Each structure stands twice: as C-alpha cells, then as structure tokens.
Amino acid sequence: MSVMEQDSAGAPARASLANDPVVRGYFFQFILVLGVVILGWFIVTNTLANLERQNIASGWGFLGNTAGFATSQSLVESSETSTYGWLLYVGFLNTLLVAAVGVILATIIGFIVGIARLSNNWVISKIAYCYVELVRNIPLLLQIFFWYFAVLRAVPGKREKWSFLFNSFHLNIAGLRGPKPIWGPGAEWIGIAFLVAIALCFFIARWARKRQEATGQQFPTFWTSFGLIIALPVLAYLVAGMPMHLEYPNFVETGPILLQGFELNVGFNLIPEFLALLLALSIYTASFIAEIVRAGIQAVSHGQTEASHALGLRNGHTLRLVVIPQAMRVIIPPLTSQYLNLTKNSSLAVAIAYPDLVSIGGTELNQTGQAIEIIAIWLAIYLSLSLITSAFMNWYNQRMALVER
Amino acid sequence: MTNSEVFHIRTEEAPSLAAPASTSGAIGWMRQNLFSSVGNTILTIIGILIAYSLFAPLIQFALIDAVWTGENRDACLPQEAGEHVGACWAYVKAYLPQFIYGRYPTEEIWRVNIVYFLFAALLIPLAIPKVPFKAINAILFLGVFPFVSLVLLTGGDFDIGFWGWGFVVVLALIGVVIAAVQMFAGGQDFAGVKPVLLAFVGTAVVIGAIFTLASIDFGLPVVETAVWGGLLMTLVIAVTGIVASLPLGIVLALGRRSQMPIVRLLSVIFIEFWRGVPLITVLFMSSVVLPLFLPEGVTFDKLLRVLIGVTLFSAAYMAEVVRGGLQAIPKGQYEGAMALGLRFWPMMYLIILPQALKLVIPGIVNTFIGLFKDTTLVLIVGMFDLLGQIQSSFSDPTWSTPTQGHTGYLFAAIVYWCFCFGMSRYSIFIENKLNTGHKR
C-alpha cells in the first residue's frame, strides 16, 4: 500500500503500533492469508465429504482405463480400446493442430486485411473496413455454427462431390479430401536435407549480415535461402530414388450403395468439424489482428517514411526496412494475446464435436464422473500453453525491442 | 563566339498545355482514389467483384427472395412457394417472443417488460454525457435496479437460509472486532474507527436489507430460471457479469499494484489464472465442480453458478483494464493526496479512482462487448441464451424448411452485430470526448 512509502525509520514516538504502516501491512497480509487458508480448507473438506457421499473415488487411476469410444480425428494411433489418458493426449494434439494452423492462417489474413485498410484505394480499404467491423462484432460461436451447419452442410452428400484444383481436391459432407504423400524407404533423407537447408540459411544470413556491415555489399539472402529450401529436399528426393508418391482419394461410384463415395482411409482427409473450426477461428481472430496491424503501422510517425524517402529508399524498402521493424514493436504484444485468445477459443470445438481437449474431456467427464481431475487437466494444459506462449513472445519482443537505443 | 549568337528569341507562343486532370468532383475523386495507376485499377476491379460476389447473394437471400408472411413451414417450402426461397422471416416473426423472453410464462411477461424498460430508462441517460444527475442515476442503475429486477424476474420470496444470514452477521462482527482492536489496542477514539465500522457494518446492513427484500413474498408467482431464455438470458448474464466484476476488478487491480508482497502475489495469481483459461472450462467448472465445493444441503441455482463463473472470469479482465487506468495517473496525484493527509482508501475513492475509471470507460465498454459475445457459450452447458434459443427452435417441425437454419443464424448475427457495433461506436465516442484534457 502506498501508505507504506512514508519514512518508517523516524516514526514519531507517541504513534501507536496500530498506526505503523509496516505493522498494518503485516496484519492485513496475515488476515488475507488466514482468509485464503480458511476458504481452501472449507472447499477441500466439503469436496471430500461430497465425493464420499457420491461414491466417487478421486485420483488419477481412471486415466489407465479403456475409454470405449473413438475420435473422428487423431494424429496418433488410437481406437476404441485406447485409454482415457491416451485419448486426452489425442485431444491435446488436435487442439494444438487447430491452434497452430489457425494462428498461421489468421496472421496471414490479418496482415493482408490490416494493410488493405491503409490502402489508398478507396474500394479496397472499405472492403477491409467492412470485413473487420462485420466479423469482430459477431460472436465466435455463431460463426462456428454458421460455417459448420450453414456452409459445410450445404455441400454435396456422401455419394457426390465438388472437385477443384485439377480434380485433386474434393469437398463433400464428409470433409475435404486430397492427395496424401506416401513415404517410402529412404524418405528420411528428404527431411534431413530440409533441416540442413534451414541450418545453411541461418548461417548464410549471419554471414551476409556481417559482410554487409563490414563492406556494405548486399547479398540476396532471401532468394538464396528460398532456393536452398526448395532445391536441397528435391535433390535428396531424386538421389534417394524418388521414395515418395501421392495417394489420390478413391471415389467409388458403382457397387453397393453403402460403399459408394470415398473409400475410407485412402488419401488425405480433413473432417468438416476441423474445417469449420479452423475457418471460424482464423477469420474471427484475423479481424482483430488486422486492427492491431493497422494501429501498429499508423503508430510509426510519417516523418520516418519521409526521411526514408529523402534517403532515396523506394516504397518497398521503406516499408520493409524502416516502417515494419518499428511497427512490429507495437504489434507484437497485442498479437501475442490474440494468439492466446485463438488457442483458448479453440475450446469452442466442443460445440460442434471436433475432438479437441475440451470435447474429449467432456465426454470422459460424463462417462467417469471424474470432474475435478479432468477440469484440473484442462486448466493445467491451457495455463501452461498460455505461459509458454507469453514467455516465448516476451523473449521475441525483447529481441525486437533491442533495436531501440 | 560572341554571346549574341546563343540568344534564342521565341517568335511564336508556346502551345498551351492541356488542362490538368480534374481533382475535384466525382470524376476527379474516382481518378485519384480508384484509377490512379494500372495496378490500382486492377485492385479496384477485383475489389468490386469481391464485394459484388459477397453482397449480391446476401441481398438476394435476405430481401429479394425472402418470405415475409406465413403461418407455418408451407410458406417457406420450395415446393409450395416457388423455385427460389430465401430467408424465411415469417419463422422469425413467429418465434420472436421466444427469442426475446425465452420460455418465460406469457402472462408474466409484463415483469420482463418492466425490467427491459427500467434498464433502458436508466442506462440511456447514464450513457449520454450531457444529461445531469449522473451520481444518483448511477446509484439507481448499479445499486437499486439489480435488486428490483431480481425480485421482478424471479418473483422474490427467497429462502436465504443459515449460511446467508450467517455471512451478514459475520461481516458485521468483523467490523466490530476491527474497531474494538483499534480502540483498545491502538488507542483511537470512536471518531477514528467510525469509517471502518461504517464500511463493514454498513455493508452488512445493506446486504441484510437486500436479503430481507428478496425474502419478502410480494405475491408474484415464482418463475424458475430454467424457463428464462433468449435475449433476457443474454442480457442478464452480460449485465450482471459486468456490474459485479467491476468492484472485484478494482480491488484486484489495487491489489496488483499494492506494496504488500502477499497481496500482490495473490492478486497476480488470481488474475493470471482466470485470464489463462478458456471461458468454457470456467463454465464447466461452475456447473460441475462448484456444487462439490459447497457444504451438504446448500445448492445454487444453475444460472447463479454460471453468473459466479462469468463474474470471476471477467473480473480478471476488468482488473487489467483498471490497472491500465491506475498506471496512467501521474504519481503527483498520489503524492498530492498523501501530502493532504489522506489515508489509502480516501485517497483512492476521492482522488485516484474517479480519474482512473473515467480514463478506462472505453476499456470497460470493450470488456463488456467481449462478455456480451461470450454469453453465447452458456448454451454449451445447457442454458438458452439468444443463440441457444434460436438453435433449439430449429428442432420444431412446424417451421422446418431448408432455409430455416440460415435465417435463424442471419437473425442472430444481425442482433448481436447491432448491439456490439453500437457499443463499439459508443466507446469510440467516449474516447474522443475524453481525449481533450488528460492526455500527456
């Protein structure tokens, strides 16, 4: 408390102990801790009594039991015989998947729309404005319902399809299907080549920066890196004897009616729940990111642009070397919280039964009644995701902020 | 070479240049903003195409092909009404009372109407800066209106029970004990302990009065919260959440800036915990786990449990908003208040908070917009807010048509959009209004 800022060393002699800020501080904190402890004790004893009355055995043992239900999407091996704990892990991976893809998509859309809002072209900037004001003022859950029930249910039924992109991708009520890469023996060399390419790019970037600082000569780092990242894996692919082919989805049009439609487990399949959630999450979050980007760019004073033009830099260079590095410092902190929001909002998956952490946990909660344990797992995972993301972003933010004198 | 040889004497007038392209009027404006270069022209055309492909089907669906009147699904069926059937507004019209009142009994709807009317009558003058009597208006809105509407909506006649009255008595006793300790151990006279006594005993008396009011039988039939729904539910959750989270948020924000380490630590833990978890898990927690925390025999209404969860959740966000306001107040204001001899709480409510809260009105409105949108999540724990009510109306065979879902979602989107967009405009208006004096 601010009262404590008074100089307590030279306290007047006749002031009572009750008016000493330090003593009062200790007293209040003691009362607070006491209150929290009593509240905690109250909750724990009540919970134990209630659990005993309802015959619920608390503990983590249920995680090893067979769940008896399967998920519609799984990144790892899982079936009806998987355990509760394993299915929670499957759900956790699904959450991470939709959050990661959503973050990338939302960032791309958000930056495009944010820059479009600053466009000199009246039509483009108004379209961006309408997008932002329309999307961010409608609840996310409604948007998820819209994409899932109104859009992805309006596509053709199981035995029909819409095809696009040279007949390689197909959309119907069972989701989006496309070619799936099948890796043969020796395919690991492609991955290794890719990693080597990334490492090379890193070193080239460092060397190019040093050389530019020393001699002023520029090196086309971007195009070299781009070429390396494409060329090395392709080279490895050719050298290893082309150990990869594409498996195209197989659409059955004849035969028994129940077997018509896409053959199961052939080709690459995105379930409609994932598509709806991904679209809704990224479009919704992109509207907030667009505003952040716009505010960030506008926060860089126009004098910077003018000075850069006066130095002879072109528009592209001005944007890339002068405006964006400064705008990023304003953009990153709110951008972080949008990424966190997107991750937390992915829990709305439960409304359309996309098998994410909350959705699977909810099913398990209903089956086992282990409410406290499952909610504790949810809270722990989301809290640690939040803390990890903000820690990473703080680190990145510090790096960006170092540019400042 | 002499100088005279390089003289050039113009013998005829220079040809006059063409008039510069007009920069005024509609054509000039279009030339500058839409077609200034080839790239710009392409962008303009792409933009117009995008806008057309988005808005033309929407207008076609919502207005041109729409069905406005009808008794049942036959009016909106393609077999009956023709080839293209758009939005089935007749269905929305038939369901409108449910969307606004939920399944509230028809003969008791006047009670909800009074609450809606009081809400508007108290909120609108509060929101317009020029209208006088702000203080009394705020007291009526934040202090009296919630309890009047509580009694009106539920029917009153609550059983407060042992724990409720016990809480009031304990609160009053705490005040008396602190005052006694200060008088006998601290050597203060009665005038010195009056504020503490007033704060605790006064709060206890107010809560006791509310309990008494709530336990009076006014003869209104009791309406279970299970039949509340639609816009009523949405507004009850959003408004209660924001009104209840404001004081809690202020306390947490002060706690986070406190110099007592334990107070600060507990506030930070509380705030970061609630901000780090999704609202859905909070709702699951309040509907499944909260009953386990209570002693045997004590049960909470489901709506009340959700309200507690929503309040704690938004209090954490509110605390961060208020903290922003507190940080914006120059240190001189604190020092000035302390130099005048004010203690902590008088300093806060006389000097700091009035300035800080005024600064963060836009932030509070934005938190409210977020909460308003988030109320839709309660449908996941089985309550019927506006979206939940619309969603549940889809199962009615009387109106089941191919476009029913689209119409329902469009209606929900329009309602939510109007509320949220209106509030965000208001927040911008207040921001501009406050932008004059305090900016440093």
In short:
The complex is a heterodimer of chains A (405) and B (440). Chain A has 405 residues and is of the alpha+beta class.
Stretches with pLDDT under 50, minimum 5 residues of chain B: none
Give the mean pLDDT of chain B: 85
Radius of gyration of chain A (Å):
28 Å
Structural class of chain A: alpha+beta
CATH superfamily of the largest domain in chain A: MetI-like
Q: What is the percentage of strand-forming residues of chain A?
A: 5-15%
Give the class of chain B from helix and strand content and strand pairing: mainly alpha
Largest sheet of chain B: none
CATH class label of the largest domain in chain A:
Mainly Alpha
Total helical elements of chain B: 17
Report the helical percentage of chain A: 55-70%
Instruction: Note the gap between the termini of chain B.
Output: 70 Å
In CATH, the architecture of chain B is Orthogonal Bundle
Could you say what the CATH topology of chain B is called? Answer: MetI-like fold
User: Cα-atom Rg of chain B, whole angstroms?
Assistant: 31 Å
Account of the 3D structure:
The complex is a heterodimer of chains A (405) and B (440). With 405 residues, chain A is of the alpha+beta class. Chain A folds into 2 domains: 2-50; 84-179 and 248-401, MetI-like fold (Orthogonal Bundle), CATH 1.10.3720.10. Chain A is built from 11 helices and 8 strands. Chain A has helices at residues 21-53, 84-117, 122-136, 140-151, 188-215, 221-239, 272-299, 302-310, 315-345, 357-368, 371-401; strands at residues 162-164, 169-172, 175-178, 180-183, 244-247, 251-252, 261-262, 268-270. In chain A, the strands form 3 sheets. In chain A, strands 1-2-3-8 form a 4-stranded antiparallel beta sheet. In chain A, strand 1 (162-164) and strand 2 form a beta hairpin. Chain A is globular and about 70 Å long. Chain B is mostly helical. Chain B has a single domain, classed as MetI-like fold. Helices cover 70% and strands 0% of the residues of chain B. Chain B is built from 17 helices and no strands. Chain B has helices at residues 25-33, 38-64, 78-81, 89-101, 109-127, 134-154, 161-184, 190-215, 230-256, 261-276, 279-293, 302-328, 331-339, 344-359, 361-374, 386-393, 404-434. In chain B, helix 12 packs across helix 14. The radius of gyration of chain B is 31 Å and the shape is flat. Chains A and B meet through helix 1, helix 3, helix 4, helix 9 and helix 10 of A and helix 2, helix 10, helix 11, helix 15 and helix 17 of B.
